[in-house]
Amino acid sequence: MEKLRLGGMALQNGVLVHGPRAWGAAVRLEDGTVKSGSGPKPTFAPGVSVPFVRGPLRLAEAFAVLPALKRGLPEARLAFERPAVVAALVAASTGASLARRSSLPVIPREAAVVVASIVPALVALRGEELTRYHGAEHISIGTYETGEPAAKEHDRCGSHLVGPLTLATALAGAAAELAPPRHRTKARIVGAVGAVGAAVEVFGWMGRHPESRLSRALARPGTELQRRISTREPSPAQLEVAEAAIRACLDAEEALAR
Predict the structure, then answer these.
(1) pLDDT tens readout for residues 34-65
(2) Residue of 167, 170, 175 lying closest to 202 (CA atoms)
């Protein structure tokens, strides 16, 4: 079977992997056994290739997998189900609101809002088991793609969106401030969606031009995030779970292709 482009997500107790049409996941149960699940991947406007539109749609597809995962593998525990992440969401919302009402210049103010919004994701990525499963996800996908042992950091990890998304969101927020007050909320919403689209396009360009200085500079925050915070070397047992998730995904992809 031809190699597929895979994405993934670390769970508190396992790994989720998704391909073009299907998802597969595996978790380690409390009794020590590994349980897998899979299913078709929800799609939004399949075949859409319009720049700045395809990015938000692909991100929406990735998040739409999560309800299907919980139905097909209810034992899966998502990173943001922890109370600490909920508390971080409340704190981030408060921080963003305070930043918006501050007297900072527009660009620094919007950058502060973006940084506040990233905090819950950073909290969600913390945790001994989660960071090791994140490393297992990267190693298993990287090994599948190259056929050789891979590192715990992966060039296509969503963390590489941090640089482009921070810059695009700050610029979009600054532009929204130029709108008349009565239209400012709508301008912020449109700007936020546009920033995601722009960030995903830049992310794709980074993948096609990994040796570019600009590409390396934009990837640096995500690389450091993976190296220092969000990934750790997994145990053989965690790699076993990640490999089971990939097998479940590939089997589902093959079944859908028949």
Answers:
(1) 999 999 998 776 667 777 777 777 778 878 89
(2) 167
Tokens of 48: 């859409």
Question: What confidence tens digit (pLDDT) does each residue in 236-254 have?
Answer: 999 999 999 999 999 999 9
Residue 130 structural domain: 7-257
Which of 15, 24, 125, 35 lies closest to 65 in space, CA to CA? 24
DSSP string computed for 120-183: HHHHHT-SHHHHHHHHHHHHHHHHHHHSS---S--TT-GGGGHHHHHHHHHHHHHHHTTS-GGG
pTM of the predicted structure, to 2 decimals: 0.79
> Count of residues for the chain?
258
Cβ density class 58-72: b for 16+ within 10 Å, e for less: bbebbeebbebbbeb
Which residues, 6+ apart, have CB-to-CB distance to 162 below 8 Å?
118, 221, 222, 225
Q: Total domain count for the chain? A: 1
In a domain, 222, yes or no: yes
For residue 1, being part of any structural domain is answered with no
